[in-house]
Amino acid sequence: MVTKTEESQLNKLENQVENGGGGAWEYLCLARKLKVRRSDKVLKYGLSILNDSRKRSSLGPDEWTLYEQVAVAAMDCHAVDVAKDCISALQKKFPESKRVGRLEAMLLEAKGSWEDAEAAYSSLLEDNPFDQVIHKRRVAIAKAQGNISAAIEWLNKYLEIFMADHDAWRELAEIYVSLQMYKQAAFCYEELILSQPTVPLYHLAYADVLYTLGGLENLQTAKKYYSSTIDLSGGKNNRALFGICLCTSAISQLARGRNREDKDSSSDLPSLASAALEKEYKLHASDKLSVLTSTLKCLRVSS
Amino acid sequence: MAGTGGGELKYEMAQNAYIKLVLHALKHKTSAVNGVLLGRTSPKNESLVQIEDSVPLFHNHLGLLPPLEISLIMIEEYYSARGLGVVGYFHANERFDDTELGNISKNIADHISRYFPQAAVLLITRSLKLYQKGKTAALLCRFVSYASMAF
């Protein structure tokens, strides 16, 4: 996961290179470090370096890392021939390498020969059963074929071994949400919150899933997690502010027929949230302020 | 601009609406995207629905309720002042060869058709297909020829 500062730094570099200001190698290094998926740009800039023999030799030993990066980007952009060329260059340099073998298997996957790729990955895993990338490629194959239940199975097996892989937990949660299996998605977010309790993104996603599940208890818990998101993000998170207003409205709708005994004593929370939202809108989108006020009114009216 | 036919109901889609949807899908090539279609029934012809505009919604976590609720309320507020209402839903799947209308899209489209019975669902695939809700027969119409004309 990438922070805002890292992302803006990456975008700045991208703009710079795009407008002819140089810095392609820095961009590629940063993209590799942050593990972002900007394959079309990586492919373009990487090829411009690799095709120029002077620039290529000035890289020294990093040349081969660049070949690997460009190969993966080419496969993502479906430029299979480019990928093939990069991989053959790597094969010539490192003939018995497992890392190159992994790239070859990925090439099979990119071409769509699923069974061959599966076989290649299984044989690679026999030699090195703890290669995280290969495990995840297996999940990707299942997903690409449309076999979501197999993808879930593989991903669960992977997470039993590598419980600390946060991106994998997030991917699993997103798959569950897309299948509307909200309880299981909630479990994934709970794991993420337990291991990284200060990341507001997980609190926000967990609150969203709880709200979607519905029911009075879930709504009240969702409200708490929206509040913790606002706390952790310094009050800047608009989605969490909206979430508070939605939760309040939904809770009071549910509690209308029941006893009002356990009504929230923090009844100034929604008004604080709406005030914060209005301030944000005045600052950034003042022409949409009227839409915001009527939306907030609608939520309060329906409560 | 593009016209489609079948049964008694027809849909007309403005170029602006169409372009916004396609660009949104293109910008987020690696995820499923969705959005709403806005328009009205033609005052001259009740069986013609004019899709004047569209609003792209999300490109991740399509199945979560809070952002959807807020955005639908805001869109209704904004566009009812301009005389347009929500007339449909559009969706593009994550994989290019997936032409199924998933559960999430069905639920959202059901919800929309409760307020606007002639609601349409636009599923963007390699060629465009238009599914109509609220009628027993599903209509499949191709926008491909118009797409090449529009660009």
From TrEMBL, chain A:
It is found in: Endoplasmic reticulum membrane. Keywords: Endoplasmic reticulum, Membrane, Repeat, TPR repeat. This is ER membrane protein complex subunit 2. GO terms for cellular component: EMC complex. Residues 100-209 form the EMC2 TPR-like domain. PANTHER family: TETRATRICOPEPTIDE REPEAT PROTEIN. Pfam families: TPR_EMC2. Belongs to the EMC2 family. It comes from Linum tenue. It is a peripheral membrane protein. Component of the ER membrane protein complex (EMC). It comes from the Eukaryota.
TrEMBL record, chain B:
One of its GO terms (cellular component) is EMC complex. InterPro entries: EMC8/9, MPN. Pfam families: UPF0172 (PF03665). Residues 11-145 form the MPN domain. Belongs to the EMC8/EMC9 family. This is MPN domain-containing protein. It comes from Linum tenue.
